[in-house]
Amino acid sequence: MSARALLAAALLAAAPLAARAQTPELALVGGSGVAGGTVAVVIQLSEPAGDAAVTADLDIGFPADRVAFSLPVSDTCRIAERLAATHQVGGRLLAPGLVSFAVFARQLEIAPLGAGPLASCDFRVLPEAPDGPAALTVEFAGLGDADGMELEVVGVGGEIVIGAAPPACIGDCTGDGVVTVDELVRGVRIVLGELPASNCPAFDGGDGQVTVSDLIAGVNNVLRGCPVAG
Question: Fewest Cβ atoms nearer than 10 Å: which of 30, 38, 125, 208?
Fold first, then answer.
């Protein structure tokens, strides 16, 4: 299949998604780091939560034999800059390898969360941790509105990649070294404005935005594979 045909297929696949309402997602966007280092994990809310959601709760599971999370949560996690005036973070460690995280109003006047990053939390990679992915799982995800009612939401896990950073692979949203058609569809939706760029930072070719050129680079990575270290 040619690059043009593959991109056309991704556009067609994205079209039905734009026609129907999507369930909001609370997603974990991990990063990469080396043993003994620190990795920031971003917690983000996707559309179409809109102005309805004002609080968010996540129980995050992590491999305690590979990464660590320090208390208090209010020090280890930072509210996103766009929410700094209206919201704050809190939580507690429920068990080894399981942390409860919450975003809630800072004041009596309750403001909506909106779509985008909610906060970032630092995970420390243990010195003896072997290279490879460390899975981050969502054990519970919740959204609440201004009346205290629960809203529908889906939790999406992520991972921390331990080891030397691989060469950049545009479109590799999951960091597994492969770009799939599903990931290409995600890139198309970012370009169309249906998803925030933070939904897949791997589509940013380095200029702070996702463009058609980045989509074409992603198509090439689907067809030829991700670049490997020389």
Answer: 208
User: Which residues are CB-contacts of 180 (< 8 A; sequence separation ≥ 6)?
Assistant: 222
pLDDT digits (tens, 9 = 90+) for 31-73: 888 899 999 999 999 876 657 899 999 999 999 999 999 999 9
CA distances from 87 to 68, 190, 196, 199 (A): 25, 26, 20, 21
| DSSP single-letter state for residue 48 | T
- Do 55 and 97 belong together in one domain? yes
Q: What is the residue whose two structure tokens read 């201004």?
A: 146
Beta bridge partners of 117: 44
Angle between helices 181-191 and 3-19 (to 10 degrees): 70
Query: Which residues pair with residue 33 across a beta bridge?
Result: 162
Distances (CA, A) of 65 to 40, 62, 98, 128: 18, 9, 12, 9
Q: What does the pLDDT look like over 211-225, one tens digit per residue?
A: 888 888 889 888 888
**pTM, 2 dp:** 0.66
How many angstroms separate the CA atoms of 84 and 74, rounded?
13
Q: Are residues 133 and 66 in the same domain?
A: yes
CATH number of 187's domain: 1.10.1330
Same domain for 126 and 81, yes or no, is yes
